[in-house]
Write a structure and sequence with these properties.
The structure is a homodimer of 466-residue chains. The first copy, chain A, contains 22 helices and 6 strands. Chain A is mainly α. Chain A folds into 3 domains: 132 residues, Alpha Horseshoe (MgtE N-terminal fold), CATH 1.25.60; 123 residues, CBS-domain, CATH 3.10.580.10; 172 residues, SLC41 divalent cation transporters, integral membrane domain (Tetracycline Repressor, domain 2, Orthogonal Bundle). The first copy, chain A, has a 3-stranded mixed beta sheet with strand order 1-2-3. In chain A, strands 4-5-6 form a 3-stranded mixed beta sheet. In chain A, helix 3 packs across helix 5, helix 4 crosses helix 6 and helix 15 crosses helix 16. The N and C termini of chain A lie far apart (110 Å). Chains A, B: It is found in: Cell membrane; Membrane. Chains A, B: This is Magnesium transporter MgtE. Chains A, B: Belongs to the SLC41A transporter family.
């Protein structure tokens, strides 16, 4: 038996035997320094079989990190070369807290640059081994950001091949049903694990036993990718009345499914976020009633502070009109009425528009037509309310007629202003990629309050000839 | 052949032959007068077979009305006595506009008193014949009020018997699947059409063909009644992760099913109503963007009018403090800040509580603890904001120190008041059976605005020694 000869290799003239050892020691050194970028770089020219051997010799905490630094193509091959027991240990390592900490501490950008997709085979095995909670905590290591399909998917599906018969498939279902909860859809994969079709249990049951899956499957499959946003996923499920939707990776390999009950939970959470945003609260899906009071106060104070700031602007404007108010002190009595009504009209318009955006009702009309409609509605409402306010001021508060008329005219102007800004701001915020629900309310309040008192005082000055 | 002899009957000594004719003419007269109560009364002592014959001789528009006036028990028997072709015509009659108008014009109370449940057999046949739109328009005639399970259910289910084998059942599915879209659950009924169990398609597929349905069915069925509220239905489906839920009548006879996609639509609509209510809008599930502007204005003006009224109260209070304001006109500058912040703090508390109520999070804590928590949060927020406002007023607006302190103290008091009333009012409204989402906002605004300015002016008077 001859010793293997030194051969030319990117790592110099080492004997094949020495390569895994050298790679291992270099990797360990770089990982200890925390230089993940460097570690990734030195792995590129190395053969999968050598990387596999190098990884087998590393301490456990490092194995998982080193494996995650491989490109998807490489990871697939390296994984195949690992001993079955080491494959298992590696999957276990993904749960280790020190491993999670290293990836968790990186910025999302770094993470996205560093971590390629995991091979679908590894994802499937990993997802099946982890509890939902463990999956949540290892999801960053997988490269799945919060709220994406990769985070939400479950591995409990049954896959079949095109050339299986209906009766073979039914047999497979009987065998696998204890481990796969959701069997109303079966997913058809080719030899590369690529999703090629879908068969519902219904189709299966009403077909004759000899038919082939390829004859009864639907080839026009609606699927999502691991990085598809959860809200988009639940919208698709709802739109098509699906019971589940498959999740695939970049090469259209099936890695999991998302079921309708999870989609409903996502919808509920998104709704809570929208409602909280409209009510001026931050939310990230935690259970509000389990938070500490300090967290509660922190979540709310930012928003209140913004509103306090806008109120100080209004206050400063009023303060600058002291001469006018000293002269006609009764003008003060109408400030809450004007700003309050303006705020309410604006809130109505923005509520309608924000809810309409989320339920796709608005696309049929287009922003300009919506804003125009709201403006007219504001004018109508302003006229009705302005008339009532004038009557109330003149007859019940018995102010001078010009003051009463001034209040009425201001109310019409403020209502139009409020309904136009209330309907326009959500579109504007969406256009600049801010959450319409979160951002509209304080800006509407600002615009309406500040401009509202300005309009009021200027109309009053006109009447007074000041 | 002997003529039937006159026999004693509640209708006097008529020959059996004459009874249907007499009943028919009496009924026609009463129905023409619109006396449905009277018509119902005269039917009570008559034998089902005679009623059937009487109905067969009536003009079409009256047949359906007369049939609907029967008690459920009687209706079942009368229906059995009708000729198949007449059964069919009767079902057609339920679609007639003049028939629908008669029932539609009655008050809900009268309707509920007059109309007993329809026999499940008739419901099933009727539901299967009518399109969803036709079902909606005839639903009042059925006695199903808007938003109840009876309105939403579909008749597309497959029923099986306990003593059928798995293979027989699969055969039945193959036969019926073109007409029954939803076959993931099969419903087990006894000879009386009573729901006794449920079998999922999954259970069926993984069982051996010889097993009996009674061996594999789940007997612990979760069902709803025709008058169960749609929101409750969708909550049940969501809670148990069902794909569908059966709808039964009073005798637990299966009349339809509600599927998860319909439940999702209900949830979406309820959410829109909640969001609209929080934004101060009325909603009844119409598409807002298809309404005329007059309808839009009408929907909003009621709410705005209520808020205008509360603002006039605030205005009157300010007006009554003219002496104070004349003396220290700068006090005016802080009114929008105080009422605005109070409104925002109150909105946050009520949003959290209202959303929590709908998602059942709050039951774990109980109202008192929730209100207490909110009160403390309000005190915390008020202290932070009050301090900021005092600093701003003193250093930037350069008002006198006592004015700045007065603003700060008022802000703390108003925040506590706002968070307590914002969290307490939804519970109060729920207790008196008003929609918390719809009713809370204007009351919080009133309470906070009115009490807020009162607190502010009184604290100011204290400082001034007035």
């Amino acid at each position: 038996m001859t010793e293997p000869q030194p051969i030319p290799s990117p790592l110099g003239t080492l004997s094949r035997r020495e390569i895994p050892d050298l790679v291992r020691s270099q990797l360990e050194a770089l990982l200890k320094q925390g230089d993940l970028q460097g570690a990734k770089a030195i792995l590129i020219p190395v053969q999968p079989v050598d990387i596999a051997e190098a990884i087998e010799g590393m301490p456990e905490a490092m194995q998982a990190i080193a494996f995650r630094l491989l490109s998807k193509q490489e990871a697939t091959e390296v994984y195949e070369h690992l001993d079955t027991s080491v494959q298992q240990v590696l999957l276990e390592d993904f749960k280790r807290q020190d491993v999670l900490d290293i990836i968790g501490n990186m910025s999302p950008d770094d993470r996205a640059r560093l971590l390629d997709e995991l091979p679908s085979k590894v994802v499937r095995r990993l997802r099946a081994q982890l509890s939902p909670t463990e999956w949540q905590s290892t999801a960053l290591l997988m490269g799945y950001e919060s709220g994406t399909a990769g985070r939400i998917m479950t591995p409990e599906y049954i896959s079949v091949r095109e050339n299986m018969s209906v009766s073979q498939t039914l047999e497979r279902i009987r065998t696998l049903s204890p481990v796969a909860e959701i069997i109303y859809y079966l997913y058809v994969m080719d030899s590369e694990r690529r999703l090629t079709g879908i068969v519902s249990l219904r189709d299966l049951v009403i077909s004759s036993p000899e038919e082939q899956i390829s004859e009864i499957m639907t080839r026009d499959v609606v699927f999502v990718h691991t990085d598809t946003d959860g809200e988009e996923v639940s919208r698709l499920i709802q739109r098509y009345d699906f019971l589940a939707i498959p999740v695939v990776d970049r090469e259209q390999r099936l890695v999991g499914v998302i079921t309708i009950d999870d989609a409903i939970d996502i919808m509920e959470q998104e709704t809570t976020e929208d409602i909280y945003a409209l009510g001026g609260l931050q939310s990230d899906g935690d259970n509000y009633f389990e938070m500490s009071l300090w967290t509660v106060a922190r979540r709310r104070v930012v928003w209140l502070f913004v509103l306090l700031l806008t109120n100080t602007v209004t206050g400063s404007i009023i303060n600058s009109q002291k001469d006018l108010l000293q002269q006609v002190v009764v003008l003060t009595a109408f400030i809450p009425l004007l700003t309050g009504t303006g705020g309410n009209v604006g809130a109505q318009s923005s509520t309608v528009v924000i809810r309409g955006m989320n339920t796709d009702e608005i696309r049929l009309l287009g922003p300009l037509k919506v804003i125009w409609r709201e403006g007219i509605a504001g004018a109508l409402l302003g006229t009705i309310l302005g008339t009532l306010a004038t009557i109330w001021a003149y007859f019940l508060l018995q102010v001078e007629l010009w003051v009463a008329v001034c209040v009425g005219i201001s109310l019409i102007a403020i209502s139009i202003l409020a309904s136009v800004s209330g309907s326009a701001l959500p579109f504007l915020f969406r256009a600049i990629k801010l959450d319409p629900a979160l951002m509209s309310a304080p800006f509407i309040t600002t615009a309406v309050d500040v401009l509202g008192v300005l309009i009021y005082f200027n109309i009053a000055r006109l009447f007074l000839g000041l």
